Amino acid sequence: MADKILLRNMVFYGYHGAFAAERELGQKFEVDVEIHLDLTGISQNDDLEVAINHVDIYTIVKDVVEEGGFNLLESIAEAAALEILSAFDVDGVTVRVRKVNAPLGGILDYVEAEVTRRA
Fold it and tell me: Sheet holding 92-99: strands in order across?
């Protein structure tokens, strides 16, 4: 399926990480979501009643990142993907979670985990 709905670079503050300081102090996380589905009917009918509400997607991701307490980026991505799949009739979802200030002892832009799950 080539059709997608994309939400890129959502930024949230969460309390996740392998180190106690990360879970106590918190940090910024960036998240991308790709919803895989057939958009033919939605785009041709231009009907909000059958469209997927982008606010609902955003809210699901926000709740997972801001309310959960995970050790791994992979677990954040997995939780968000499963919540999205349970909320919407879609073919699949890809979730990318980035930690921009990863404590790795060196300079890098970010660490990212990506999961793709199918319905």
Answer: 4-14, 27-36, 92-99, 111-118
